[in-house]
Specification:
Layout: H1 4-25, H2 28-40, H3 47-54, E1 62-65, E2 68-71, H4 75-81, E3 85-88, H5 92-97, H6 102-110, E4 113-114, H7 119-127, H8 138-148, E5 157-161, H9 166-178, E6 183-187, H10 197-210, E7 214-218, H11 223-231, E8 240-243, H12 247-252, H13 260-264, H14 268-275, H15 277-287, H16 290-299
Parallel strand pairs: 3-4, 3-8, 5-6, 5-7, 7-8
Antiparallel strand pairs: 1-2
Helix pairs in contact: 6-11, 14-15
Length: 316
Amino acid sequence: MSSLPSQLHQFHFLWQVFYLYIDTSFNLESQFQVILQILEAFPVLTKTTRANYLKQFAYSDKVKILNLAIDNLSMSELLRELKTGVVFTPNVDHLIKIQKDKDFLQCYEIADYKVCDSQLILFTSYFLGSKIKERVAGSDLFPAFCRYHKSNEEIKIFLLGAAEGVAARAQRNINAKIGRRIVVEAHSPSFGFEKNEEECLRIIEKVNNSGATVLAVGVGAPKQEKFIHKYKDQFQNIQIFMGIGATIDFEAGKFNRPPKFIRNLGMEWLYRLLSDPKRLWKRYLIEDLPFFWLILQQMLNKYVEPFQDIKPTKLS
């Protein structure tokens, strides 16, 4: 029979494996029960030791990753809570960009909801000691939002983004899946539209005339966030603004997302890189690599936030 310290060591090793497996394999409603079953299976653990392990699954309202406070909401919590406001979904690329782009950081600071878009960011939160509940990627959130409001006639969506014809195809696909005209209109702007004030004003007029109450913008970061930040007060009927990245392409069937197990392993970036290397190689293989060095600095309390004149979101 192994000694008590040996048994504890074995448990601690197994716990680290379970910790990641449980998070990626069970929804939040099931996780706590699974954790209790695992802890009870090891009678060597004292009540105090069990309590300490359970504390790892306590959540704060916000999680600070570099210079951004991410709202610690699950998908179901966000869908229930979201009635009005601006929703952005930060990923690693966004976190790298806001180290140098002050205007982009300011867009994030005025957003009402900032939810984790990246499995890598979720894993990172474990090491920083403040665990994010769940990855809420824009490409998961938007279809879930449509399903959640399937019978809510007050939700009328305007899709803005993607190449010519792609947004219209996404509109048809979404409406067919939902069973009603939840997407009331779609528009694909010209390349560089954000630099053309006249085109932006025409888009605003088009959205206002559509009767839409939700504006989903998928033109890539930081363009979509900056467009929403700059013009949101000029939209007359819009209650919810969402930055949704490549979601319009996915909904149109232009690109496919990887299987769920690949996404849960944090390898969606590799799948997308292999699918579109010409466009994405520089982002994933060069621009985003400093993320790991910056996170190491944060772990060692050596990270210095840029743009400290911008009022940070309070953590709770």
